[in-house]
Backbone:
């Protein structure tokens, strides 16, 4: 079973546009230590 932790506003699906309350685009980053064979997280940033 996958562990999942959610903090803050999260997109309903991966790899779609996530916009803030004022319409600003949030940028997505996949962060991993083992590629996609191991655990990873998807981060959303306000600025690049």
Residues:
């Amino acid at each position: 079973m996958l562990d999942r932790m959610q903090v803050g506003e999260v997109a309903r699906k991966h790899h779609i546009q996530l916009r803030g309350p004022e319409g600003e685009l949030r940028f997505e980053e996949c962060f991993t230590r083992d590629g996609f064979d191991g655990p990873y997280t998807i981060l959303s940033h306000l600025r690049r």
About this structure: The chain has a mean pLDDT of 81.
